[in-house]
Amino acid sequence: MKNSKRLSQLATMVKYPYPHIWDCCCDHGFLGIELLKQQHKKVGESERQSNIHFVDIVPTIMTQLSEKLSRHFLHQPLWHVHCLDVASLPLSEYPVSERHLIIIAGVGGELTQWFVKAIVAQNPQHQLEFLLCPLRQHYQLRKTLSELDLRLVDEQLLQENKRFYEMIHVTSDQNYPEVSLVGNKMWHGSGAVGQAYLSRTLTHYQKQQGQSLAEVKAYQQVIID
User: Fold this and answer.
1) What is the tally of structural domains in the chain?
2) Which domain holds residue 40?
3) What would the pLDDT profile of 168-202 be if each residue is shown by its tens digit?
4) Are residues 202 and 158 in the same domain?
């Protein structure tokens, strides 16, 4: 089955090596499977392989996924299936020196905020990176990332099936720039897609009858080049 444009783009944003990559709220595991395929192509290269962790809270989905992975990746042992709440990732089981890339995609911004807050609070000594692609509430999520002092690695804007997606890659490494509340890098060269997304976003906040004045003013400052 061919991956969606969104999942394919997320996969390209994963820059190896990471000792651990967590595909959270993974559903049927399409993104994590794509990452396993990418690693399979690199067998024999000097680049270190990543442990790919599949995480979802629905037991039936994870049982089916485990069976699928056992059939197709039997000789590729670096995958792990976890049926648990994303807020309870067992990162403490691994050395603090090992970096973790935690991918959370396909859920709302409010739930994404909750997951990120919980993971950061429970693992203050770990080297954490998050690749996030929420369905809604991007401004509020970015505000939370800023409050947590997570820094921006990359961000991209994508349109698929009349829906817009912000893909935000952040890190606990303080050597990176701060996260913009309305985005920065993702607008550069975004063209018609950026214009359409900005217009839709402004219209959304302007309809909030004065409750989102800060958001409206912030997005009015966006320049698309």
Assistant:
1) 2
2) 5-179
3) 999 999 999 999 999 999 999 999 999 999 999 99
4) no
Over residues 33-73, the pLDDT tens digits come to: 999 998 877 655 546 789 999 999 999 999 999 999 999 99
Tokens in use for 169?
A: 């890659």
Q: Of the candidates 12, 9, 101, 26, which has an alpha carbon nearest to the alpha carbon of residue 65?
A: 26
How far from 212 is each of 8, 99, 141, 164, 203, CA to CA, in Å?
Answer: 33, 37, 15, 20, 11
Of 210, 214, 222, nearest to 184 by C-alpha is: 222
Determine the straight-line distance between the first and last CA of the chain, rounded to whole angstroms.
Answer: 36
**96/78 Cα distance (integer angstroms):** 19
Among 143, 161, 179, the domain-final residue is 179
Amino acid identity, position 192 = A
Residues 121 and 224 in one domain: no
- Which residues touch 192 (CB under 8 Å, ≥6 apart)? none
Please return the burial class of 31, using the count of CB atoms within 10 Å of its CB with bins 0-12, 13-18 and 19+: buried
Give the Cα separation of 188 and 182 in Å (integer).
13
Other beta carbons less than 10 A from residue 52's beta carbon: 27
In angstroms, the CA 64 to CA 28 distance is: 8
Cα 103–Cα 130–Cα 139 angle in degrees, nearest 5: 105
Confidence (pTM): 0.94
The tokens of 50 are what?
């990543």
